[in-house]
Amino acid sequence: SQTIHQWPATLVQPVGSPLSLECTVEGTSNPNLYWYRQAAGRGLQLLFYSVGIGQISSEVPQNLSASRPQDRQFILSSKKLLLSDSGFYLCAWSTSGIYNEQFFGPGTRLTVL
Amino acid sequence: DQQVKQNSPSLSVQEGRISILNCDYTNSMFDYFLWYKKYPAEGPTFLISISSIKDKNEDGRFTVFLNKSAKHLSLHIVPSQPGDSAVYFCAAWGNRDDKIIFGKGTRLHILP
Fold first, then answer.
1. 20 to 30 A from A25, CA-CA: which of A49, A75, A86, B43?
2. Does A28 contact chain B (CB < 8 Å)?
3. Would the pLDDT of B79 be above 80?
4. pLDDT tens readout for residues A18-57
């Protein structure tokens, strides 16, 4: 069966510090991978998605970046965090193609102080 | 521009009654719709979906209705139970993308 892992579960970082959130998927190959953010009072905002290694599509302009160094690894990064980067970050995967439900990881709660 | 809209940020329903969560969309190219349920500090979980070739899909206590002409779908939960208290996200696929567009969610409170 497939599982998706995210770490860390919670993170408190000062403004201006770097960020690295990791997501890995087990039990499937060549998944589509997604990073979402759920900010206070807002819905699920798609940040990045990837259909293959090294292929990253950015949905919104921001100071975050994503990388996919391996087939089942997706990393969300920032060089300098902003207060507005606080939120709940969710990684998701789906099988390639359309109309496939996405499976979400447990999320990372990021607080930028 | 929000393509999937959930205009009610929250909804309170008595236990045992019917919960109706609404969702509107603007893109007529959307042809597959999903509902996700999310508890605090957890990732969303898939609940039910519907293709645009149908107008109703039922799974146990959950039924999704689709009105294509109105670009509107709704999720009915009956009877509502305490464990249904969560945030519900409506989402839509376009037929050319590898991504889902989510609404902002509706927080459902089931009252005892």
1. A86
2. no
3. yes
4. 999 999 999 999 999 999 998 766 778 889 999 999 999 9
Half-sphere exposure of A18 (CA within 13 A, CB side): 5
Average per-residue pLDDT for chain B: 92
A77 by Cβ neighbours in 10 Å (0-12 / 13-18 / 19+) ranks as middle
In the stretch 53-82 of chain B, residues with CB closer than 8 A to chain A read none
> What Å distances lie between residue B15 and A112, B19, B82, CA to CA?
38, 9, 7
Contact A105 B43 (CB under 8 A): yes
DSSP sequence for B14-55: ETTS-EEEEEEE--TTEEEEEEEEE-TTS--EEEEEEETT-S
Partner A contacted by B48 (CB < 8 A): no
**pLDDT band with cut points at 50, 70 and 90 for residue B1:** low
